[in-house]
Fold this sequence. Notes:
Layout: H1 14-17, E1 34-40, E2 46-52, E3 62-66, H2 68-73, E4 105-106, E5 112-118, H3 121-130, E6 132-137, H4 144-147, E7 163-170, H5 172-180, E8 184-192, E9 204-210, E10 215-220, H6 225-236, E11 243-246, H7 262-274, E12 278-281, H8 284-290, E13 297-305, E14 311-323, H9 333-339, E15 350-359, H10 373-391, H11 395-402, E16 411-412, E17 418-419, H12 424-434, H13 440-449, E18 452-462, E19 471-477, E20 483-487, H14 496-508, E21 515-518, H15 536-562, E22 571-573, E23 576-579, E24 582-585, H16 586-593, E25 600-606, E26 617-627, E27 633-643, H17 650-669, E28 700-704, H18 722-739, H19 750-759
Parallel strand pairs: 1-12, 10-11, 14-15, 20-21, 27-28
Antiparallel strand pairs: 1-5, 2-4, 2-6, 3-5, 7-15, 8-13, 9-10, 9-12, 13-14, 16-17, 18-26, 19-20, 19-25, 22-23, 23-24, 26-27
Helix pairs in contact: 9-10, 10-18, 14-15, 17-18
Amino acid sequence: xxxxxxxxxxxxxxxxxxxxxxxxxxxxxxxxxxxxxxxxxxxxxxxxxxxxxxxxxxxxxxxxxxxxxxxxxxxxxxxxxxxxxxxxxxxxxxxxxxxxxxxxxxxxxxxxxxxxxxxxxxxxxxxxxxxxxxxxxxxxxxxxxxxxxxxxxxxxxxxxxxxxxxxxxxxxxxxxxxxxxxxxxxxxxxxxxxxxxxxxxxxxxxxxxxxxxxxxxxxxxxxxxxxxxxxxxxxxxxxxxxxxxxxxxxxxxxxxxxxxxxxxxxxxxxxxxxxxxxxxxxxxxxxxxxxxxxxxxxxxxxxxxxxxxxxxxxxxxxxxxxxxxxxxxxxxxxxxxxxxxxxxxxxxxxxxxxxxxxxxxxxxxxxxxxxxxxxxxxxxxxxxxxxxxxxxxxxxxxxxxxxxxxxxxxxxxxxxxxxxxxxxxxxxxxxxxxxxxxxxxxxxxxxxxxxxxxxxxxxxxxxxxxxxxxxxxxxxxxxxxxxxxxxxxxxxxxxxxxxxxxxxxxxxxxxxxxxxxxxxxxxxxxxxxxxxxxxxxxxxxxxxxxxxxxxxxxxxxxxxxxxxxxxxxxxxxxxxxxxxxxxxxxxxxxxxxxxxxxxxxxxxxxxxxxxxxxxxxxxxxxxxxxxxxxxxxxxxxxxxxxxxxxxxxxxxxxxxxxxxxxxxxxxxxxxxxxxxxxxxxxxxxxxxxxxxxxxxxxxxxxxxxxxxxxxxxxxxxxxxxxxxxxxxxxxxxxxxxxxxxxxxxxxxxxxxxxxxxxxx
Length: 760
């Protein structure tokens, strides 16, 4: 089909977005609107002794300075994390809520203290300059290694130390025993560096309180309005019917826009207090401080290997930095989301992992593109490459020996996941063939002649995604043949209007131009679980398939009644109903089955089977040169062979993979979040925090093998995070190969590499 599954359509939404006709939160304004500015803590750890607003309240145009007492007057609850775990000793971890505005203490630079409401943002900023706060500074701690020491400053006084949970997965005794009896034991210690998401569109909100209906409406840039609605309902002690959340176009999210933030609560609370719409816009500097950060793990791991180079067991210990407050899914990311994937694509019979969550005086961390799976893939792939080097075996050969064979599917891992499908060895062989590995030695010699160090790095990856709660879709068709889909996911750059349109087009045989996709409005869309964890097309698409097929069945039923014909005599093919000697297009049928009052409509929902996910997988192969004189890395070629199951749109898929790889390269080479000893964020702007430019990456060689997923209705494996999972280990493995070293921590910046070269 021209518009159906598998077709490389350009995004239909691009005609709107690329011509400046998108509608983002910052584009929206209301009559009588006022503005909010957040006054934030300049200290990482301090007691608030006094707040002097005597000069500030004299500023013309100031409406109100909101503090914690105002929040309390509205009976607003603290923010709580969504997910808690049991510690190794069987006890529940201690829940430590987060305040909306600081009462007595601040715990990181950027902690919100006051919300200033004024007639303009400029006036609000001027007011903030005139507020004098007297602090009593105390010692702070920003690094994991220092925070876990016995005499470390306490971040949360309600805990005896900075370890907020101590969790385990797997069989410790059996894993230790099998590793102990192995011929080789290869260990590694590594850092998974903290990242700041930095989407193109900074967060912004408009809060509206309707005092007559006692109803709140929040406009914000999000990854799912229904989850925010539920959280805000709990915080405001209101029924969900009293909370509305609306999201229009979204300029990127990468995970960090799925969460609730203090500013969302504050814009609604402020609107209640001043009885006007309240708008807040986050500056880029504020984004660095206040957006949820990603990664920040410190890990040690040991891999047991037998004399035939077969992996026997894996044991891992990880410290995960939570920051100063527990974000929504902060605990879930390093535990179930990441740890369960530590064995990667390999046949490892026994595994055990211990994860400790650590509080520090830094910004909170949570899900960032890949959400735990990049951390797991990086650890196992670095450990496998280090093993190959120490045992003097080819990194390709050691992988071929240990990769799970397709004949072993479905395969239950030592940490509890059951991979439903995949051909990992084929991915590896295809990537190696595309990279012309047999000629690599000649290319390396040529680089050496020119004074460069050449390296090649391989990583295989697998992730668990496309799971979570149910998704819902409603589809209706008007008398003019236009089709409207309402669905509970939220596009933030993936191209949902196109991919969902293709699913409907495939089933109904209609032109995609007739299909309108509506997302991001809890007033119009009854239910939804949102976008995150590469779930939109596997889960949302499955729900849409159910809804569309229900619409088709309903149409057949109506035709059978109208023409007095048995429903099983009606056939449907390529958009045409066939019955008797008659032919009727779907659009012709809709013209007399729909009217302005009663639309032809059907609903559908789909829930992933309990405990099941989709498991996209693949091989990344990076070839690069290192300049010996300055340590600069130049990526020469990048090959990726993926398996995403059934492909809806190859063009959109390639775009997702390219973007993910670039973010992975950014983590491997450039991005570094640096706090000083006093908790100040030194990398708080694009002058200090480097993200990749177009000139830093090569043209990518992307291909895929379609091995259908068995865990959803479309055979699809989620794709949005895959590039960011496979890229960091591929790049670092290539650098280690070029420098002939066992390990280098990310980011491998030129200065770090130059020092290593000169130390040798």
